[in-house]
Amino acid sequence: MNKKIGVFVCHCGINIASNVDINELIKYSSNLNNVVISKDYKYMCSDNGANLIKDSIKKYKLNSVVIACCSPRMHENTFRGVVEDGGVNAFNLEIANVREQCSWAHDDKKRSTEKAKALVRGAVAKARLLESLNTSKISVNPNALVIGGGISGIQASLDLAEKGFKVYLVERKPSIGGRMAQLDKTFPTLDCSGCILTPKMMEVANNHNIDLITYSEIKNIDGNIGNYKVKIRKKPRYINLDKCTGCGDCVDACRLKDRISNEFDMGLGKRSAVYIPFPQAIPMKCTIDGKNCLMIKHGKCGKGPLCVEACEANAIDFSQKEEILEIEVGAIVVATGYDLLDPSKVYEYGYSQYKDVITSMEMERLISSSGPTSGEILCPSNNKIPKSITFILCVGSRDETSCTWCCRIGCMSALKQIYLIKEKFGNKIEINISYTDIRSFGKGYEEFYRKIRGENTNFFRGKPSDVRKTQDQLKMDIFDTTTNKLFEIKTDLVVLVPEIIPKTDSDDFSRILHISQSSDGFFLEAHPKLRPMDTFTAGIFLAGCCQGPKDIQDSVSQASGAAGRAANILSKKELEAEPQIAYVDVDTCSGCSMCISICEYNAIDLIEEKGKKQAKVTEALCKGCGACVGACPSGAMQQLGFKDKQMISMVEETV
Amino acid sequence: MSIIDLTSMGEPQKDIKNEINTRLKKLQGEISEFCYQCAKCTSGCEAHKLLELEPHKIVALLKRGLIDELVNSDVIWTCMSCFKCRERCPQKVAPVEILFALKNIAVASGKPIPGKYSAMLQSILSIGLIQDAQTVSNHNNQTIKRNDLDLPDLSKPVDGNKFQLVLSKLAIEKI
Questions:
Q1: Which candidate, A575, A570, A520, A574, places its Cα nearest to that of A549?
Q2: Rounded to two decimals, what is the model's pTM?
């Protein structure tokens, strides 16, 4: 077919025009072979720019379009729509990136104009060989998977279920609730955390659209947007969930009662080997901890397991084995949450040395009425009420030797705890707080900070170098930059506010999900401002702290947003498949299987046709990543829209 | 439970601090604790440029309860009472009122008052003014008296004795 190409050059305001001679580029490109028209406009992505392209297509009967503008990541889709509207197949479009790769990158206008010419020349060369491609349709599975049962996962599940989609909510621990279940009250409104969380947990339990899968982990994820196949590893609970009534008789009977460190209380309290993590757990069922239970570990428990004796419902089943569940979903919301930095890494604050140096999460459990001390604030070393408590903010945060980012909740959580402590003890207790900056940025936060300032709290703007022990107290020196003085502080209890870090297994998990991480290790959003809930993997969305530190309100907002983004996919019967996929030139393929081993999406199979082995691409699975094309030793594997001959002619013309 | 300033070995004097804050609350409605050290007061302080008064530092020391250090310092007497700090503080803290309170404590505890202050006080007691109208000279080296300018007479206390009595009573009450 005789190619009639139109070249359109965008000024991008002055982003391109200030560093590339537009007139010269227009003149140059209009003389290239097959180019019938060459035009420029201040903003090609505007309505007027689009009309200019569409009118030119009609007027000059164009069948290929080259646009010299910003990166294709920015506007390729916009312009695909424009040329399609104008009557040209969307894949007869080639973008020459003369902004990021030219005008922004160079200073010398003359030379960058020459480079722009080369880029346009290459794009025109490829456009001469472009072919129309047709998008095929793939069906969409309307079910959703939500990974993580903290407040983000709960909110995303409830939103999706309310929209009418079936949701699989997978939680690693025995109960949903996550970190929020461990908190006493929430800032800045001082809502009781449990009181606002448990109704939502009950909703999850009672919602027929939600299939709650607790004590389970994601093992593997295959497939693509609209059709993910998920394998879930269901850990043995050694309890028959249908029979267990959650009465807790077995918990009291357990031979190891009060002997196992309770992770829900951050190790401050003790539990049995069979346990219910907290009083409002959902599901309200017992779990036998296989790592500690004597029956599981040693095969015997005294003269016989006391829990079995105690359980009237006959729910205990030591023969349970790990199960693998397989489900299919159309979209996934990842809400796997965060971990806290182990403050013993900041060794100078003595977290692992001194019992009375605790973390803010441990303080939270001490304040909580359901905690190990029933809400009494006691020094762990001697169970006495402290007369003085000192908070140290930013432990490991904003620190080039540890974690460079801000945890976003440390300041406010410490201020909230100070409020709760003052509420219990009034001015009988001395509160010191060592800070670098107080970041109270949210709605109502600054007002809360001001309130705490007014309540006899000693704010020291400076960090102590270390925490030491005197005879019966902890001691530290803080240089306070507001008074320019060094203060010696003796205190009974030190609370460290540690950094929020990515889940320790997030490296492995990102590989299972095929999603990226940012340099800090949190899961990477597709765009920090405009696509904060999307990942680069279509159909997988992020909610809550797995994407970066967040407070509850931000987590809930993002979770609802992610659920909405997922619903955009689930509500469609069909999606357009990526047409720029791989295909096999059957005559050249030798059936060496190199491509099969390299394909991340299991999209290639080896088949035998007429006695000849050859690769076959499943179009619905291929994502068009191009890995197989690069791996193929014979050149039999080609990618539509990026064929060898198209790319080679583009390269030859450019350089 | 203790906080010690390791340079002066001073300890927070919480009672005096609370007294000052109670006084501030009456005068201004806000207490020193709200100060977040933006230093807007010092940026605009007239006494800072010449006499190195740093109102935000005064507030910081008060917040820490280091009253003795403040009361013993000459710098509290440099405030010109322009009230700009009170007018412009984003947290409605009034360093100028804090300085008045500190000066009062200094006087009450028998600390010496800078010389100029005693002269001014004496002048107020005798004529009701910090100083009487002075003879000044202009650019052309002409000496000018107030009486030459056709201005109304300066108002002065009618009954000198009564005036002194009222002032002394007020001073005792305040301090």
A1: A520
A2: 0.84
Is B23 in the A-facing interface, judged by CB distances under 8 Å?
no
Q: Regarding the domain delimited by A340-501, which CATH topology (the fold level of the hierarchy) does it fall under?
A: FAD/NAD(P)-binding domain (3.50.50)
Task: Note whether residue B9 is domain-resident.
Answer: no
Quick: pLDDT tens for B70-117. 999 999 999 989 999 999 999 999 999 999 999 999 988 988 888 888
- Among B6, B34, B57, the residue with its CB nearest the CB of A486 is B6
Do residues B33 and B85 both lie within one domain? yes
d(CA A524, CA A546): 9
Unique residue bearing structure tokens 């190891």 = A256
A 10 A CB-CB count for A93 gives 24
The fold adopted by the segment(s) A157-232+324-337+503-570 is FAD/NAD(P)-binding domain (3.50.50)
The yes-or-no answer to whether A5-129 and A157-232+324-337+503-570 have a common fold is no
ipTM associated with this complex: 0.80
- Give the residue from chain A lying closest to B65, CA to CA: A458
Residue type, A382: N
Q: Which structural domain, as residue segments, surrounds residue B82?
A: 14-108
CATH number corresponding to A5-129: 3.40.50
CATH topology of domain A582-639: Alpha-Beta Plaits (3.30.70)
Q: Which DSSP string do the residues of A496-522 spell out, in sequence order?
A: EEEPEEE-TTHHHHHHHHT--B-TTSS
Q: Which of A337, A393, A28, A323 is nearest to A154 (CA)?
A: A337
Helices (H) and strands (E) in chain B, counts: 9, 3
The partner residue sitting opposite A487, judged by closest CB among B3, B31, B36, is B3
Contact A483 B2 (CB under 8 A): no
User: What is the pLDDT at residue B119?
Assistant: 87
Q: Which two tokens stand for residue A420?
A: 């709760």
Considering the domain architecture, whether residues B99 and B119 belong to the same structural domain is answered as no
Tell me: pLDDT of B175 over 70.
no
Please tell me the total count of domains within chain B. 2
A590 touches chain B (CB under 8 A): no
Instruction: For residue A638, give the nearest of A597, A587, A600 by alpha carbon.
Output: A587
Spatial distance between the Cα atoms of B169 and B64, rounded to a whole number of angstroms: 33
Q: Do A484 and B57 touch (CB under 8 A)?
A: yes
Task: Based on the fold, state whether residues B155 and B77 are members of the same structural domain.
Answer: no
Check: CB of residue A569 under 8 Å from CB of residue A330.
yes
Partners of residue A482 in chain B, C-beta under 8 Å: 37, 56-57, 60, 63
For residue A438, what is the nearest residue in chain B, using CA coordinates?
B36
Residues 6+ apart with CB under 8 A from B110: none
Contact check, Cβ <8 Å, A387/B57 = no
Shared domain for B71 and B126, answered yes or no, is no
- Residues of A454-478 as b/e, b for ≥16 C-beta within 10 angstroms? eebbbbbbbbbeebeeeeebbbbbb
In a domain, B6, yes or no: no
Q: pLDDT band for A1, please (50, 70, 90 cuts).
A: low
- Containing A138, the helix (H) or strand (E) segment is strand A137-139
Would you call B63 and A491 a contact, using CB atoms and an 8 Å cutoff? no
Q: How far apart are CA A173 and CA A146, in angstroms?
A: 14
> Of A454, A484, A488, which is closest to B4 when you measure between CB atoms?
A488
Do residue B84 and residue B126 come from a single domain?
A: no
Chain A hits for B37, Cβ within 8 Å: 461, 482
Position with higher pLDDT, A543 vs A608: A543
pLDDT at B31: 87
pLDDT at B1: 56
Q: Which of B85, B108, B131 is the last residue of a domain?
A: B108
List beta partners, residue A326.
Answer: A231
Rounded to a whole number of angstroms, the distance between the first and last alpha carbons of chain A is 26
Question: Nearest Cβ partner of A454 from B4, B7, B34?
Answer: B34
